[in-house]
Structure formats: structure tokens, C-alpha cells
Amino acid sequence: MYYGFDMGGTKIELAVFDQALNQVWQKRVPTPKEDYHALLNTFRDLTAEADEKFNCQGKIGIGVPGIVNQAEGTVFTTNVPAAQYKPLIHDLANILQRPVKVENDANCFALSEAWDPEFKRYPTVLGLILGTGVGGGFIINGKVLSGKNGIAGEIGHMNLSVRASKLLGDTVPEITCGCGQTACFETYLSGPGFERIYAAFTGEKRSAIEIIQLYKQGETQAKQHVERYMSVLGMFMGQVVTVFDPDLVVIGGGLSQFEAIYQLLPEVLPQYLYGIATLPAIEKARYGDSGGARGAAFLNLID
Question: Rounded CA gap, 303 and 93, in Å?
């Protein structure tokens, strides 16, 4: 059996998969994000419950919201302060009495999508998350590309391009990103960034859901906003696709529910690509919120 944990700032989810990769059980509990020993015990208790339920010792993978230092067995995560810089991988392997694989949650999301039966035919997959932040994961031949420092896929922290800066002008002020830098693409393309650009140009504060509803109704300011946002997204994706050249881009996160993206991005993106490039396939994520735990479980399918 394969156990996939998705550790977030509010909940820890365990999803259990059989040998045919079918999900057979799932449970969520609150994350004890301020108490390290309580955090370890939560993993221990959930694992023990699954072991007893399925009469086995399942293989464990964990997705975490942060950067994983595989060499030191530590994680950098602001969402779960208790785990910050702690030897989480070593301690979990010790308390659970088995090997534990840990990866960034965006990488787990991308891995889950890359292992979808329909998507397995693509050698290279970029998982793009447009949610509270902007994250990414690169999958090559079914394996995660983590990078030397565990930061491969942190594409949201690329700096705003000159063309994007000219498009937004001084109307949208720079803000400091969670990484400590300014003008990261994440601060413009995330869900909050989507709302921030709209407010800057219209003087009205609206939620992303409200803006999208206005767009669907044909409201002029909303249509102009979406056109502007898609131009910035196209500039961003043009850089990412030029560097990674994926066969498939899978989009997840809250904004992935905005169906116009899948119509507009293929129209906008070509002008920002290398001249001879053809578009990758662009698809909506298949597994939604369950993708993190699913991908974490699948860490044990790869070397």
C-alpha cells in the first residue's frame, strides 16, 4: 500500500492507495503547526491507524509547503512553524520505523497529474499552481526534478519582465513577496494578485469570484482586466516554457477553475515563445485538492 500525506498549514491529509493506484481510504486531521512533537505524533497515529486497517506497513510519501533539503533532512516552511529547520525526515523515519520520502507540495501536485492515465504519455510535464501563491513542479519521465537546492519549480519567484512592467506601469505598485523579494510574478498572477491588479486599475476591491462573474456577464472593466492578466500570464509562461519546453502544462489552484484561461492562454502564449516553438498541451488539473496527497504517495513509485 502507498500512503500519501499532504501537510498543510491547517490540515494533514492521509490518502491510501492500493497496488493498482486506486485510492482506498482518506482521513484529514488538524495540523499541530506550533508543536513539533505533536506534529510527529500526528503522523505516527495516522500511520498506525492505516497499518492496522490494511494489515500492512505502507510506503510513505509526504508533501510539504516549503523547500526540502534532502541532504540535511530538513524543510523550510513558514506554514508549519513547528517543522521549520527541524530534522523532519530523519525523525519521521525513526518514529514510523520505515523510509519516508518528502517533497515540496507543488512537486507532489505535478507528479500526481503526470501519473494520470491520460497524461502518462507526456515525457515532460509542468504543473502550474495559480492559487494563494504561484507554484510549479517539473516532472521528467515520471520523476520529480527537485534541483540541487530543492527549489526547482519555484517559478512564481521569477522577477516581473520588462514587458510586463510596461504593461502594468505604475498603476500596480510593487509589494514584497513572501520570499522577501519585490516584483515576483507570484504577487501579480496569484489569486490575490488577480484581485490586486483589478483594484489598481478600477479602484474597486472585488474577489476573484466576483470579477470572473462580471467577466462572464461581459462587463467592460472585467473584460479589460482579464485581457491584461492573461497578457502578464502569457509573458510569464513564455519564459517558463522557453526554459523547460514541456510537452504538457497542467494548471491547478483556485484560478484553474476559471475556464477562460484554457481558451485564452493558447491564443496569447505564442507571441511570447521562441520563434520555432509549438504550444504544449494545456490542461486543467484532474485531481484538485486531492492531488497533493496522491502525488506524495506516488513518490514511492520512482527511484
Answer: 17
